[in-house]
User: Fold this.
Amino acid sequence: MRRGQRTSRRYRGSRSGGMGFLIPLLLVLCAVAAGTLYFINDNMTFTKDGAFFSPKKNDDVHEEVNANLIIETDAPTDEGPEIAPPSVQEVGNPSQDDTHTRSYFVSIGNVKSPELFDAALAEMPENINTVVLEVKAEDGTLAFSSDSAIAKNAAVAGDDTCIVSAIEKSRSKGCKVALYMSCFKDNEAARKNQEYSARTANKIIWLDGNNVRWLSAYSESAREYLISATEKLASFSPDEIILSNISFPAVGKTEILSYDSSLGSKRDMLKSFMEGVVTAAGEIPVSAVYENYNSARIGESGQNAEDFAVFDKIYINSAADRYTLGFEDAKTLFKDTGCMLIPIAQHSEEAEFMIKK
Assistant:
């Protein structure tokens, strides 16, 4: 048999004819690109007005400047003394002639988030002159740091930078700032510090009608915790401190609660506390929310309208509900106290108000 002749076949694309044409073409294109870049670089001028090709001899010439422009102001004249620009603090201060309270409540979740706080300010009505920052919520959460053992046990402390930032942003809008704090209605502090909470005779921690725990105004440690928190708020130099829930629990099975009445009446305990927080705030005005319980609940609360006259302003919900009276009823309660009453509502057309949604 004859052995088959071995053949070798090359792939069609392996022929060198195509490559021999492409390489010179690429070299020509590279040379053209290099020449173009050289021309642009050699003929381009950068000025304050933009980038230009170098003009011909008979064209106007733009002044060449460095990339980092320094634009000098006109030299001072002798027309008068130089006036320094106002500081941010001065710009932010509202008019001293505006004595009416038109405030806007911002919840603690928005206060503790820069992004959410910016959004809240953007939604704020234009006629507002006071931003109310919730810095201690009814669940016990704080928007500021605290060295208190009660706060540490409950792990509720926040960061001071939250309040500082919110205050600066509010004042840059031309608004005053009020710091808002829930007092004895404090779920987490009561849960983690039960010996200072509202409890039954068997020392069982108590829950109100909304399943929230309360600190007891009969507890000296609880009162001191809240007084020290007020002192801390005053250190931020707000225009006002507003305290809510200066009360004993009044909603729920309050008949099973037990207090050491040998220390005094409920009214005595609250009155002593109110004097303590006003003293702790120093020069900062302290206002309060009067819960305005109806006749079936006022005795349980320990509140008395006459005692609230120690505060700068009194905030009261406009509408009545199952357990509280309306704003018009409060006017009768406070008519002989000389207190300034401010309604709280979701929206208002009154001369003074707090918008709280």
Observations:
- Residues 17-43 form the longest helix (27 residues).
- Residues 1-16, 44-97 have pLDDT under 50 and may be disordered.
- The longest strand covers residues 130-136.
- The chain has eleven helices and twelve strands.
